[in-house]
Amino acid sequence: MTATGPLTRRERVRETTTVEIKRTARELLVREGPAALTLRAIAREMGLTAPALYRYFDSHEEVVGAVCHDVLDELTQVLQAARDTVGTDDPVGRLMATCREFRRWALAHPREFQLTFASAVDARPPKSPGTGADLSFGAVFLEIFVEIWAHRRFAAPDEGHLPPDLVRQLRRFSAAVGDRLPPGVLLAYLSGWVRLYGAVTIEVFGHLEFARIDAGAMFEAMLADMSRQLTTPPRSTVGSAAR
User: Fold this and answer.
1) What's the pLDDT tens digit per position in 92-149?
2) Where are the beta strands (DSSP E) in the chain?
3) Most buried one in 71, 212, 224, 228, CB count within 10 A?
4) Cβ(60)–Cβ(140) under 8 Å?
5) What burial letters (b/e) apply to 104-125, b meaning 16+ CB within 10 Å?
6) Number of C-alpha atoms within 13 angstroms, CB side, residue 35?
7) d(Cα 172, Cα 183) in Å, to the nearest integer?
8) What one-character DSSP code corresponds to residue 86?
């Protein structure tokens, strides 16, 4: 329904065709990889001509961006469902469940992962990660960190031991997300994302096979280390308890 009433027949047809274009593009992606996402290939699958697609999307980049947007939106919902399998009284457990689901999803959807997470940001089209869907995805992990910090303080990096330029950048980031976390905690959050993203990306693309090590076991060891870091109290707290 539009702001003024129900969709017209033409609007319904347009909406249905737009959904079909995105579905067809994703099917091509899964079957043949990101390189197969050309307007000509999508149109051929639909029994249309490539120019006909311009009635629905302004460019090839916009089609790819729409697919990225849908993938991220779907992944966000999947991660939220995994997070909510653990109670709010265990925020670190909620983070671990979310991390495991991110890995599971990536291994089950390697080509969607490749399109959405394994391309340079400046090469992405306008509707790909970096817009609303990307912010919603990132908020899943950030919100859990907010929960963890509110539940129990942990030993976050001390600002005084960080490079001044990094502290200034972290403070800008903190302001952008509502000043809910201090710079040291945001650094822990970003460092955790780097570890998670790196571990999953390496596994998805098979870059750990040379070591003949069980990637799943390594992943669990990484999560155990992250969990220890997030449950280790600040030094002042430890000192007070000892006294």
Assistant:
1) 999 999 999 999 999 999 999 999 998 765 545 544 444 556 668 889 999 999 999 9
2) none
3) 71
4) no
5) ebbeebbbbbbbbbebeeeebb
6) 1
7) 9
8) S
Are residues 125 and 213 located together in one domain of the fold?
A: yes
- Taking the CA atoms of 170, 171, 172 and 178 in sequence, report the sign of the dihedral they define: positive
Give pTM, 2 decimals: 0.87
Task: Judge if 127 and 29 occupy the same domain.
Answer: no
CA distance 66 to 126: 9
164-178 mean pLDDT = 93
Looking at the structure, tell me whether residues 115 and 183 fall in a common domain: yes
Q: d(Cα 46, Cα 200) in Å, to the nearest integer?
A: 34
Q: How many domains does the chain have?
A: 2
From 41, 57, 73, the end of a domain falls on: 57
User: Is pLDDT of 203 > 70?
Assistant: yes
Q: Are 145 and 94 in contact (CB under 8 A)?
A: no
Q: Is the pLDDT of residue 160 over 50?
A: yes
Domain span holding position 14: 1-57
| 144 and 170 co-located in one domain | yes
Is there a single domain that holds both residue 165 and residue 45?
A: no
Q: Structure tokens of 150?
A: 């509110």
Residues 126, 16 within the same domain: no
- Whether residue 97 sits in one domain with residue 46: no
Cα 89 vs. chain centroid, distance in angstroms?
Answer: 24
Here the CATH number for the domain that contains residue 71 is 1.10.357.10
> What would the two tokens of residue 16 be?
């249905």
Task: Provide the 3-class DSSP secondary structure of residue 5.
Answer: strand
38-69 pLDDT, tens digit each: 999 999 999 999 999 999 999 999 999 999 99
